[in-house]
Amino acid sequence: MSDKLKAALQEEYPLHWLAWHNDYEALKALLEKSTENIEQRDCRGRTALMLAVTLGHLEVSKILLNHGANVNVENNDGYTVVHEAVSTGDPELLAEVLTQRDLQRYSTSVGGIPDLLKRIRDTPDFYVEMKWEFTSWVPLLSRMCPSDTYKVYKSGANVRIDTTLLGFDQSNWQRGRRSYIFKGQEDLALMMEVDHDSCQVHVEQMQVLPPEYVDLTGSLRPSQEAISARLTSPVVATYIDTDKISFERNKSGILGWKSDKSETINGHNCKVFSATNVELVTKTRVEHLSEADKARHKAARSPLQSFLGTVEVEEGAALGTPNGDVTEWRGNPCHIRPEEYFNAKVDLGGRDIGRPREATVRTQKFRANLWLCEDYPLSLPQQILPIVDLMSINSNHFARLRDFITLQLPAGFPVKIEIPLFHVLNARITFGNINAFDEPVPGVTTLREQGTVMCKIDESCFEAPSSYARLGANKLRQFNVNDEDDELLQYAIEQSFVEASGEENQVTVWEALTTDQTGIAPELEEDHALQRAIQESLASYQKSVGVADGGLTVGGEIQQQPQEQQEQQQQQQQQESNDWALGASGGTDLAMALRLSQQAKEEEDRRRREEDEMLERILQLSMTEK
Question: Which regions are annotated as ANK repeats (predicted)?
Answer without folding.
Answer: 44-76
